[in-house]
Amino acid sequence: MKVLVIRFSSLSDIVLTTPVIRVLKTQLQDAEIHYLTKNNYQTILESNPYVDKLFLYGDNLNGLIADLRKEKYDYIIDLHNNFRSQIIKLALPAKAFSFDKLDIKKWLLINFKIDKLPSLHIVDRYLQPAEPLGVKADALGLDYFIPEKDEVPMDWLPETYQQGYVAYAIGGQHNTKKLLVGRMIELCDKINKPIVLLGGAEDASVGEVIQTFFERPTESDYEGGLAELGKKTVIYNACGKFNLNQSASLIKQARYVFTHDTGLMHIAAAFKKEIFSIWGNTVPEFGGYPYRTKFAVLENKKIDCRPCSKNGYDKCPKGHFKCMKEIVFDFYLP
Questions:
Q1: Average pLDDT, the chain
Q2: Which CATH superfamily is domain 155-325 in?
Q3: Interacting residues of 280 by C-beta distance below 8 A, sequence separation 6+
Q4: Where do you find CATH 3.40.50.2000 in the chain?
Q5: What distance in Å separates the CA atoms of residue 34 and residue 5, rounded to the nearest whole number?
Q6: Confidence of residue 333 (pLDDT cuts 50, 70, 90)
Q7: Which class would CATH give 2-133?
């Protein structure tokens, strides 16, 4: 049996579809699993042992369809269900099953705060289109496979961090899914342990501001005061210094992970990390909270404008940004 799984983007969603790949490969007899995604997400899946062949979409849809036709698929599992994937399904003579995006129910929650969404994680909803093939959910959670060349040795980090650290993924696809810099600093201060900041090159300048804030002067009085208060926060700004797989390796070795609603949160879940997930304009009720791992949600539930989007914005539509400005950082790290 040959099966094509389709999910073009994003980082988060591709990681969230990994249980589908695994159950198809392990529960179907003699299954050959192919996966179609965009070029820039190759890294996420190229080391996945459950993917027999990876197809990458650039900008030549006709050429891609010609290549896919040669494979003579038995089934298509469409986990994106957009215009492009509809064209592909129409062009291939295979029986197709598609993911229900629940757009109307999300719209009701965003615009009228009427929650008709199922109490079901999005991973379990991604599994539903595959169920007609006779597969069912297992209990193994998400997958993320790091190639050996991208495993980061602990001695790459400053000595302070080699005895253990907290990872904080400071990035996010939209500004309304990220804390303001001042609140990031406040959070780091409360964590009060060595912290590795993770993110892309676009997050490096923010990471630099945070790191600079916690750099301690040499005056003995200042150092003495910090010691008396028990302040132990030191920052290593790794944003932009490591590729995605290397960042995943740093998450894998962290004691705890703090993260906005972003792809690194789900990579942390794949490694069964204890996660503190920070939510702004989006909400866990959409089904994208950490999957099958210990986690706590940090969010402001005292305002009536959340969620204002299923994705996010460059800035708060109402101008106050209370969803992030008024979050209470209520947690304890032993």
A1: 94
A2: Glycogen Phosphorylase B; (3.40.50.2000)
A3: 176, 177, 178, 179, 260, 261, 299, 312, 321, 323, 324
A4: 2-133, 155-325
A5: 6
A6: very high
A7: alpha beta
Share of the chain above pLDDT 70, in %: 96
Q: For residue 256, how far is the Cα from the chain centroid?
A: 15
Q: Is the pLDDT of residue 219 over 90?
A: no
Write the pLDDT tens digit of every residue in 58-85: 999 999 999 999 999 999 999 999 999 9
Q: What's the burial of 30, exposed, middle or buried (CB within 10 Å: 0-12/13-18/19+)?
A: exposed
If 0-12 CB within 10 Å is exposed, 13-18 middle and 19+ buried, where does residue 66 land? exposed
Question: How is the beta sheet containing 194-198 ordered, strand by strand?
Answer: 234-237, 194-198, 166-169, 256-260, 274-278, 295-298
Q: In this predicted model, what pLDDT tens digit does every residue of 136-155 receive, in sequence order?
A: 999 999 999 999 999 999 99
User: How far is the CA of 130 from the CAs of 45, 75, 121, in angstroms?
Assistant: 19, 9, 16
CA distance linking residue 215 with residue 213, whole number of Å: 6
Provide the pLDDT for residue 231.
76
The reported pLDDT for the residue numbered 25 is 98
Peptide bond into 277 cis (omega under 30): no
Find, among 237, 98, 117, the residue nearest to 167 by Cα: 237
Q: Which SS3 state, helix, strand or coil, does residue 97 take?
A: strand
**pLDDT tens digit string along 191-202?**
999 999 999 999
Strand partners, 6: 36, 78
What is the DSSP annotation of 240-261? Answer: TTS-HHHHHHHHHT-SEEEEES
Rounded to two decimals, the pTM is 0.94
- What is the model's pLDDT at position 220? 45
Q: Is 7 left (phi over 0), alpha (psi -120 to 50) or beta?
A: beta
* DSSP E strand stretches across the chain: 2-6, 32-38, 53-57, 75-78, 95-98, 166-169, 194-198, 234-237, 256-260, 274-278, 295-298
Task: For residues 255-263, give the mean pLDDT.
Answer: 97
Give the C-alpha separation, 243 to 79, whole Å: 26
Burial class (CB in 10 A: 0-12, 13-18, 19+), 128: middle
